[in-house]
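Inverse folding, one chain.
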């Protein structure tokens, strides 16, 4: 049957199915929702529900109605996920703030677990550039797992490494990749979460956390990742609350336990503490000193920028020539990893935005349809709503998509901030100390 002769309801059904597939793929298991655009997800969802409503209103055939119901159920399931994404405040900081508010309201704090340990699927190859940081971390975490016999006598694995650098340079991603590479369980926790826990219970929760991480053997080491460390470990001041001071002292003791094998004995040595901060200069020297390695995570260089864009394209086809890449990378100086991830997302949606307004289309050999110039010999005039949803193909990405996105993406890290990191690196950063 020719595409245009198929019943409209079947088109709608196929379209709904394809739309749902897109949503399922984008949302996935909900673990990496930070990169999703809530507006886009809402518009996908609205398009899907409108479509299903139209179908259900028109359709009389019982088996077809049944499969529509199944589709609708799945759609509602995905909607719940989308709503969670749209309502989700930005990670860690806002979540902690919300919990803090609740704590004030309730006269106490929340008692949920501090972390949800998991196995990370990320690998070093999923992190663009940062070769020095990767090498340091491989030495610290992966080599002792691969070659335990080499880490005997005086040669002991690093147990505490600090990652510092501008926002959005891949510190959290790197932490997940280290755990993934080492086959270790990742225990992510934010310092702000620690602080917002129930007063008096936090020390216990912290001890439990370290003990839980240490008990993850012999399957492999555990990576305990404390994000936004400066939230907790700032230089101590006289005005500091007693609660915070006690917490810091307790954390210092737990960190010492990691180095010496501590009260956890050999088990404690299987835990690797990784911490991250944007403000290393704010850290209390007592904490700084305890990190055996302090690793700078800088902005990506040109090669890393290209790899980063390629990673975030996720295999989507482009027509970029070598010359195009050069032109694109000439405009990305100073952009961080997250700036580039955002830029790539903008560029990726450009061909989709054109679909809505396109009026010239051509049919490809395999029954699919693509936007084309009106002057194309096979061009015919119609709008996207006249074409079965599943048969619509987006064009390859081109340089202009990136250049367009570049106009709205600027560096999020200032030159002054970069100078501050460099100064810190010259002084107290990156050096190896046995603390
Ligand atoms: N080197 C990189 N390789 C791949 N993706 C990266 C890299 N750097 C940043 N990104 C992307 O940028 C976003 C932010 O990265 P990430 O959260 O790891 O940064 P961060 O350094 O931890 O930032 P912050 O200091 O604000 O916590 C993620 O979407 C991540 O995929
Ligand atoms: Mg981070």
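Residues assigned per position:
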């Amino acid at each position: 049957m020719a595409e245009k002769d198929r019943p409209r309801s079947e088109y709608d059904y196929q379209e709904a199915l394809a739309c749902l597939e897109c949503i399922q793929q984008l949302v996935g298991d909900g673990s990496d929702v930070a990169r999703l655009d809530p507006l886009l997800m809402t518009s996908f969802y609205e398009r899907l529900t409108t479509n299903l409503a139209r179908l259900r209103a028109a359709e009389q055939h019982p088996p077809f109605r049944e499969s529509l119901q199944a589709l609708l159920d799945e759609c509602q399931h995905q909607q719940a996920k989308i709503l969670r994404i749209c309502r989700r405040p930005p990670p860690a900081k806002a979540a902690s703030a919300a919990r803090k508010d609740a704590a004030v309201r309730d006269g106490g704090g929340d008692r949920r677990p501090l972390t949800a340990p998991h196995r990370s699927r990320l690998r070093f190859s999923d992190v663009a550039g940062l070769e020095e940081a990767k090498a340091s971390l491989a030495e610290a975490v992966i080599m002792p797992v691969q070659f335990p016999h080499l880490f005997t006598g005086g040669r002991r694995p690093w147990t505490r490494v600090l990652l510092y650098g501008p926002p959005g340079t891949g510190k959290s991603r790197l932490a997940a990749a280290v755990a993934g590479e080492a086959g270790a369980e990742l225990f992510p926790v934010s310092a702000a979460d620690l602080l917002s826990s129930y007063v008096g219970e936090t020390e216990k929760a912290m001890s439990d956390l370290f003990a839980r991480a240490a008990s993850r053997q012999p399957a492999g080491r555990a990576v305990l990742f404390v994000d936004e460390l400066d939230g907790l470990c700032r230089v101590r001041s006289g005005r500091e609350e007693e609660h915070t001071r006690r917490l810091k002292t307790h954390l210092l003791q737990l960190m010492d336990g990691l180095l010496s094998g501590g009260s956890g004995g050999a088990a404690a040595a299987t835990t690797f503490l990784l911490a991250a901060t944007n403000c290393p200069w704010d850290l209390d020297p007592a904490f700084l000193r305890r990190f055996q390695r302090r690793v700078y995570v800088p902005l990506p260089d040109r090669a890393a920028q290209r790899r980063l864009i390629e990673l975030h394209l996720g295999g989507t086809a482009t027509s970029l020539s070598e010359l195009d890449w050069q032109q694109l990378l000439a405009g990305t100086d100073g952009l961080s990893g997250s700036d580039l991830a955002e830029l790539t997302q903008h560029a990726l949606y450009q061909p989709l935005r054109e679909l809505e307004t396109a009026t010239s289309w051509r049919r490809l050999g395999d029954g699919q349809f693509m936007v084309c110039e009106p002057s194309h010999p096979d061009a015919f005039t119609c709008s996207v709503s006249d074409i079965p949803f599943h048969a619509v193909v987006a064009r390859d990405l081109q340089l202009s998509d990136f250049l367009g996105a570049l106009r709205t993406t600027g560096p999020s890290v200032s030159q002054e901030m970069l100078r501050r990191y460099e100064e810190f690196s010259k002084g107290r950063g990156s050096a190896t100390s046995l603390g």
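Residues 35, 127-130, 167-173, 276, 278, 300, 308, 311, 337-338, 341 surround adenosine-5'-triphosphate (ligand 1) (CB under 6 Å). The mean pLDDT is 77.
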